[in-house]
Amino acid sequence: MEAKHISAPLTDETAANLRAGDRVLISGVVYTARDAAHKRMIEALDRGETLPFDIKGQVIYYVGPTPAKPGQVIGSAGPTTSGRMDKYAPRLLELGLKGMIGKGYRNQEVKDAIVQNRAVYFAAVGGSGALLAKAIKSQELVAYEDLGPEAIRRLVIENFPAVVINDMYGQDLYLQGAQQYKQE
Q1: Burial of 50 (0-12, 13-18, 19+ CB in 10 A)
Q2: CA 4, CA 136: separation in Å to the nearest integer?
Q3: Catalytic position from the list 15, 22, 32, 38
Q4: Within a 10 A sphere around the Cβ of 44, how many other Cβ atoms?
Q5: Can the peptide bond before residue 9 be classed as cis, meaning omega within 30 degrees of 0?
Q6: How far apart are CA 174 and CA 89, in angstroms?
Q7: Per-residue model confidence (pLDDT) at position 81
Q8: Alpha carbons 171 and 133: distance in angstroms, whole number
Q9: In the beta sheet, which residues pair with residue 64?
Q10: Does residue 16 contact residue 168 with C-beta atoms inside 8 Å?
């Protein structure tokens, strides 16, 4: 199956055309945030403050990149385990977050929120941070500089490889794979 080329931020139409198991190449703008940044965003919302970027339609990449070496845009940029963001993701999805990139399973509450909010969860291959960094064309600090690698950054990416794990129809590639294995 050939990879689908998609653009970020995501539109409702793009999310509707993705299914669990689809290979994608993502180009456009995504934001980075891990658990410390997610915690701060939720605390800001609880105080009635706005988020450091307009979250509607956006994709958050769960990554804490290493420092760039001379001549590089960014250092190694492999995905973080997504479950660490599960307690924060439903609220951000309700506010319009359209996509998340990470690695590993999501809990049922997150999967339900993906369906309810017509969003998508992508997985990037763990352990391939140096390769994934080559798809990052520029980066800009957005918020929480004191968090170092876990600060929120705006990335421009080109043909960033990922796989749809959870789609807006409730499909879960990880569960489908386990069921297929049991049948064989």
Answers
A1: exposed
A2: 18
A3: 38
A4: 14
A5: yes
A6: 19
A7: 94
A8: 29
A9: none
A10: yes
Phi, psi of 72 (to 5 degrees): -105, 150
Amino acid occupying residue 85: M
Residues 111 and 55: beta-carbon distance below 8 Å = no
Which residue's entry shows tokens 């705006």? 154
Q: Quick check: helix, strand or coil at residue 28?
A: strand
Q: Which helix (H) or strand (E) holds 42?
A: helix 35-46
Residue whose entry in the numeric block shows the structure tokens 């069921």? 179
Residues 93-140 have pLDDT tens digits of 999 999 999 999 999 999 999 999 999 999 998 778 888 999 999 999
| Residue 38 designated active-site | yes
Question: For every residue of 126-154, which 3-state class applies, written as one string?
Answer: CCCHHHHHCCEEEEEEEECHHHHHHCEEE
- Rounded to an integer, what distance in angstroms lies between the CA atom of residue 90 and that of residue 110? 6
SS3 178: helix
Q: What pLDDT does residue 175 have? A: 76
Task: Label residue 173 left, alpha or beta by phi (over 0 means left) and psi (-120 to 50 means alpha).
Answer: alpha
CA distance 82 to 5: 23
Structure tokens at 86: 């599960």
The amino acid sitting at 44 is A
Question: Please, are residues 33 and 65 in contact by the beta-carbon 8 Å criterion?
Answer: no
> Taking a C-beta distance cutoff of 8 angstroms, is the pair 4, 162 a contact?
no
Note the pTM of the prediction, 2 decimals.
Answer: 0.94
As given in the structure block, the two tokens for residue 98 are 């359209």
